[in-house]
Amino acid sequence: MQVLRPFILRRLKSDVEKQLPEKTEYIIKCPLSKRQRCLYDDFMSRRSTRENLRSGSVMSVLNIVMQLRKCCNHPNLFEPRPILSPFVMQPLTIILPGMLLNICQGKDLEETNVLDLFKISPSCDSLFAYSEGHRLAMNEQMLKDYLSTPVDVPIPKLKGFHFSRPPP
């Protein structure tokens, strides 16, 4: 144990190197930006924040301090901003089987991969090429509306799956 002690203990540079000059610290105060100030004040005015501070719990207070640090270091860590882009893309038309509706409703489908569903339908071949690595935005109501319209494409039958609506 005596042999390992110098390697295990944490030592300061001042203890090891005697010729180093003293460490000099400068404290520079800078004002918060408008967004940082707004986020900071909003967080501090929340009832849950005030209750956690009154409780005196060490973990609650440390959590509040961490949230305030995030707000001061970079406001996007505290509250992300949506990405605004001048690029506008028209919505994609997708023909999908009814089992995707089961996924949106949270039904258990035994490790269903959504991208595999795109490979099932021949009308989705071009979509699959563009869907690699991109996030497709479609909510449950849009999917229900789309699936309620009659389509002439046959819905594939898969063993082990059941459809939430009868095939057209």
UniProtKB/TrEMBL annotation:
Give GO BP annotations, semicolon-separated. Answer: chromatin remodeling
**Membrane-spanning segments:** none
Q: Which UniProt keywords apply?
A: ATP-binding, DNA-binding, Helicase, Hydrolase, Nucleotide-binding
**Compartment(s):** Nucleus
An annotated Gene Ontology molecular function: helicase activity
Gene Ontology cellular-component terms listed: Swr1 complex
Against Gene3D superfamilies, the record matches this protein to: P-loop containing nucleotide triphosphate hydrolases, Tandem AAA-ATPase domain
The organism's superkingdom is given as Eukaryota
List the protein's name: SNF2 N-terminal domain-containing protein
Which source organism does the UniProt entry give? Answer: Onchocerca flexuosa
